[in-house]
Amino acid sequence: MKHILIIILSLFSFSCQATEQSEKIKVGAEQTEEYLPALKGQRVAVLANHTAMVGEQHLVDMLIAHGVKLVGIFSPEHGFRGGADAGEHVKSSVDEKTGVPIWSLYDGNSKRPSDEKMQAFDLLLVDMQDVGLRFYTYYISMLRMIDACAEFDRKVIVLDRPNPNGMYVDGPILDMTKYKSGVGALPIPVVHGLTMGEIALMAQGEGWSRKCDVKVVKCEGYTHQTRYELPIPPSPNLPNQHSIYLYPSTCLFEGTVCSLGRGTDAPFQIYGHPSYKGGEFEFTPRSVAGAKNPPLKDQKCRGVDLRGVDDEQIIAEGFNLEYVIDAYRNLGMGEKFFTRMFLLLTGVDYIKQMIIKGKSAGEIRQMWQKDVEEFKLLRRKYLLYEE
Asked: Do residues 208 and 269 both lie within one domain?
């Protein structure tokens, strides 16, 4: 009951925070005049989840109300309703409200739909709320679908949404030869500063995805410096705006022996371990919706509470290694502190190596600065919004 109440309060918090900005910004899905005419006479599929809202109505319901022939819904990580755990296998099903089939891209079989499903539609609409991180998987699902659409000569329309971490670019560029994976698909920094539409255009322009007929319906009233607060939590363990701002840095704990708060009311906003020394903050991860088997489940952890850190400070510090370095030094485990996932998340060898050698966050940051500046120049060609 407690966790249900927490989820309800988180949703209410998102809704209240976002109201003022939602009145100023029109997301791509709300620009119906820009894409509904192109859907006439077409068999349409959508790649969408619970975040695909058009005002108070879900995209799927709106399309059906406008007489669009909607033949299928492709669902990304966390499922169409957004409640599944990270990486959890989600079975294909049928949307109870509309009767439209839901085709899961995370069913444990193939991330690429069958030929039969690809032949069932003429045009794909993409609408998902991203949070601007290389290891956040919604853009990967989009790129896989773009590649599949290119193979079958299908058109793609991306209904763009603001990037809540779009105000800066930071972190190492993914080493594609070693660490391309399901949590990193492009040679981009950890914090890439692109919307989903801009990623699609950049992937097309740089040859990172197969050539396809891709169009983007832009947002209105958005720039990359806009502090866009999401109206709906984009996935189960990003319950509020603070977690989204901390996510670039605290997600690295997924590749360590520590807990980052999955199974608590503050995921990605705290970190700790049963052996963490010092400090008075304690928490115990439990099995909850969206985190059925969290790391260090039912173990009392000591650690650090980041909920009091100011959002603007988090943004100014960018991709911050200080939290991971603190836990690494505190626990004194050496290389056992890290798992393989740490390399996949950082996307490079040198961060782990330099932490082990005792280097500071500032010293490590210098390693990627030149790469970030070069990426920002390359990225500029594909920006749809002012920097």
From this structure: no
Q: In total, how many domains does the chain have?
A: 2
Tens digit of each residue's pLDDT (9 = 90 or more) over 126-157 = 999 999 999 999 999 999 999 999 999 999 99
Answer for the pair 36, 62: CB distance below 8 angstroms, yes or no.
no
Pairing of strands 101-104, 69-75: parallel
Residues of the chain with pLDDT under 70: 1-23, 77-79, 81-93, 107-111
| Structure-block tokens of residue 219 | 């947002």
Beta bridge partners of 301: 283
CB 61 within 8 A of CB 48: no
Token readout for 108 is 């444990």
pTM: 0.90
Q: Does residue 249 sit in the same domain as residue 204?
A: no
Which residues does residue 133 pair with via DSSP β-bridges, in sequence order?
191
Q: Give the chain's radius of gyration (CA, Å).
A: 21
Classify residue 106: in a domain, yes or no.
Answer: yes
| pLDDT tens, residue by residue, 227-251 | 999 999 998 899 999 999 999 999 9
Domain ranges, residue 55: 21-217
Within 13 Å, how many C-alpha atoms sit on residue 334's CB side? 0
Closest of 291, 320, 63 to residue 190, by C-alpha: 320
Q: What CATH number corresponds to the domain at position 47?
A: 3.40.50.12170
The DSSP annotation for 266-321 comes to STTSEEEETT--S-SEEE----BTTBSS-TTTT--EEEEE-TTS-HHHHHHH-S--
CA dist 179 and 196 (Å) reads 22
CB 34 within 8 A of CB 197: no
Residue type, 318: G
pLDDT tens digit sequence for 73-101: 998 765 575 444 444 444 566 887 888 99
The single-letter DSSP state of residue 172 is: P
**Measured between alpha carbons, how far is 30 from 25 in angstroms, rounded to an integer?**
10
SS3 annotation, 190-215? CECCCCHHHHHHHHHHCCCCCCCCEE
Q: Are 320 and 232 in contact (CB under 8 A)?
A: no
Residue 212 and residue 246 in one domain: no
**200 shares its domain with 267:** no
